[in-house]
Design goal:
By secondary structure, the chain is of the alpha+beta class. The two termini are about 40 Å apart.
Length: about 625
């Protein structure tokens, strides 16, 4: 580790020479040092900035961050509390089939009443036309687009309808976002309605004249998580900007946009807390100005967001970006930094390093069920549950945290749910514990039933071949693979690092062209309905990279998805964690703390929450400018 830090320091020193070359041309690197205005300078490390600000177009790099500031979803979701927090919308609830609210006296959702109301839906076949739940959503009446037009339910209808109509959206991801909405198109022809407003209300849902612009009803699948992606993933678009500009010949997400569409891509009209300063934006810098018409206010009636201007500055090398913050060229980095880098700031004045727990786990995924043509006798060993158990027993999470993260992390349960999620976490699923020497003895005893012969380096031989696997990972994960090599060598299994490249899913993972890979995993009550299915059931271009097939687990996940009883859902989730743990398929390595760094000479009041860096919408609401 000392050698690693010396190498890091050497790279940082070389950054002095590279600095003027690595920051893109056209940006005055020193402008922050003479800026007396309430302007936050944010460093971003990447190859380029987006040229389009149509929020559905890209989910890569900094694009999602910019989109979340310029636009808004209906709600945000708090993983720890399980609460949908108001954004563009103020309230939501389930209703009965007549539109009457299923809520308690305090306005909260009465989940027992929801379960009772829709229990008959659970017995219907999946193809029954009337199998749905009704959801009522109320928009904030003061919401405006950045051009001054009011946000109405017509915009919500337009956006969700567009997601469902691939002919007009040309966006496969958008179809997934509204998968649980009972609003369907087939080749551009509407097959079913799932969105209802004052102007289109065949079910006569209670919407008063005063509510006609703010209340919309939705029909969703009988799955409690059905609202998650509808509420928190779909960034709502302004109908009056886009509706007459798109067609089947020129969809909103076009690879060959017209000049008119290109202009709209580059001049966004959103309803978020900031607007794009087009003149202050170029290939090296993105400038956002506080939206004067933003509708959400602080409790005292003042502006909710305290920073007047946010300038994102592009760096093509992380070390150069870190040098920039040390020298005062930027206030904060947009992304987290490696835990090892934290020591570089220990003696720096006016710099704060934040390290917070993460609900996100790094796992080692084994290719347990490769497609035909990708099978071989060494890889086939991974299909045996006890063989996988031996690998899992050999992994020492505490050691990985110490040497790969400098202690800035925590262990993670084999059930793959964070212990911070109290309602759904099952401590009994944390089965990869106990004395490490005893675990190694058990692992070696298991492997002796497969291969007792070893070569001169101590690696096991299976039918005369060394048991050796490649681990697909990115360059930043080489340290993790190196320590995994040391740990698995203790049970006679060889590991080798294999670079994953830019698009590992399409190059390797979806086609079973790998032995093992590193994968991030995070589950919460708001995501389990979609993500458990994706990670452990779906075999078609999903997060189930190793193609596990387990009928009992799949049935239990389906039952969990379809129950409307919250207590039953949590009970099933605890059972599922035990099943996942005993598969030894996605083996937890650690949960790395999120480490971020910021200067405190111009701003104070940074906010850090679990799984977040110090740069967030919450921070922008609390920063105090002290550098004027």
């Amino acid at each position: 580790m000392k050698h690693y830090l010396r190498r890091t320091l050497a790279v940082l020193l070389s950054a002095v020479l590279l600095f003027s070359l690595s920051a893109c041309a056209g940006t005055d690197n020193a402008q922050r040092r003479t800026d007396k205005t309430n302007t936050l300078y944010v460093g971003y490390v990447g190859t380029s900035f987006p040229s389009s600000y149509m929020p559905w177009q890209s989910r890569d790099g900094i694009a999602p961050t910019i989109s979340s500031i310029l636009y808004s979803t209906l709600f945000s979701y708090d993983d720890l509390t399980g609460i949908y927090e108001p954004l563009l919308a103020d309230n939501w609830c389930y209703t009965d089939k007549e539109g009457n609210r299923l809520t308690k006296e305090d306005g909260s959702i009465d989940y027992d009443l929801v379960a009772e109301t829709y229990k008959e839906e659970q017995t219907m076949s999946d193809t029954h036309k009337k199998k749905y739940m009704v959801v009522r959503v109320e928009l904030n009446k003061d919401a405006k687009w950045s051009d001054g037009e009011p946000v109405t339910v017509d915009d919500v209808y337009f956006s969700l309808d567009l997601c469902a109509n691939n002919k007009l959206s040309n966006h496969a991801g958008a179809l997934a976002w509204v998968n649980d909405l009972k609003h369907k198109y087939d080749e551009g022809i509407k097959k079913s309605d799932g969105l209802f407003t004052y102007d289109y209300n065949p079910h006569n849902y209670p919407i008063s004249e005063d509510e006609k612009d703010t209340v919309i009803y939705m029909h969703v699948n009988t799955v409690m998580g059905a609202v998650a992606s509808l509420f928190t993933t779909v960034l709502i678009l302004p109908k009056h900007i886009w509706a007459d500009k798109i067609s089947a010949e020129m969809p909103i997400n076009s690879s060959s946009p017209s000049d008119e569409l290109t202009y709209l891509y580059q001049h966004p009209v959103g309803c978020g807390p900031y607007v794009l300063d087009r003149e202050g934006t170029n290939s090296a810098q993105i400038t956002l100005k506080k939206n004067p018409d933003y509708f959400r206010k602080a409790e005292d009636g003042s502006d909710l967001y305290k920073v007047d201007t946010v300038k994102f500055v592009l760096y093509q090398d992380k070390n150069v970006a870190i040098f920039a913050i040390k020298k005062g060229y930027i206030d904060i980095l947009d992304s987290s930094i490696p835990a090892n880098y934290g020591t570089l700031f220990e003696k720096e004045k006016n710099i704060a390093v934040f390290s917070v727990p993460n609900t996100f786990a790094n796992t080692l995924v084994l290719n347990v069920n490769p497609v035909d043509g990708q099978k071989n006798e060494i890889r086939d060993l991974l299909g045996h549950e006890d063989f996988r158990k031996a690998i899992a027993l050999s992994i020492n999470q505490e050691e990985l945290i110490q040497y790969c993260l400098d202690g800035a992390g925590s262990t993670y349960s084999a059930g793959l749910v964070s212990d911070t999620l109290e309602n759904m976490y099952n401590p009994d699923s944390d089965i990869l514990r106990g004395d490490y020497t005893e675990r190694l003895a058990e692992a070696n005893a298991i492997l002796d039933t497969y291969a007792t012969e070893k070569d001169e380096l101590g690696y096991r031989l299976y039918n005369g071949k060394r048991i050796s696997y490649e681990v697909l990972a990115n360059p930043g994960e080489q340290d993790t693979v190196s320590y995994l090599q040391i740990q698995l060598q203790k049970i006679g299994i060889e590991l080798k690092f294999a670079p994953s490249g830019n698009s590992p899913e399409n190059t390797y993972l979806y086609h079973s062209r790998f032995d093992m890979t590193l994968q991030g995993v995070t589950f919460s009550l708001g995501t389990v309905d979609i993500m458990l299915n994706s990670h452990f059931v779906n075999l078609n271009k999903s997060s189930n990279y190793g193609r596990i097939e387990n009928e009992a687990l799949a049935e239990k996940i389906d039952k969990m998805r379809n129950t409307l009883n919250l207590d039953e859902k949590n009970a099933l989730l605890r059972e599922i964690q035990m099943d996942i743990a005993k598969l030894y398929y996605k083996i937890p390595l650690y949960s790395a703390n999120v480490t971020s760094v910021a200067r405190t000479d111009r701003y104070t009041g940074y906010v850090v929450s679990p799984s977040q860096t110090a740069f967030s919408l919450e921070t922008l609401q609390h920063l105090e400018f002290v550098g004027g």
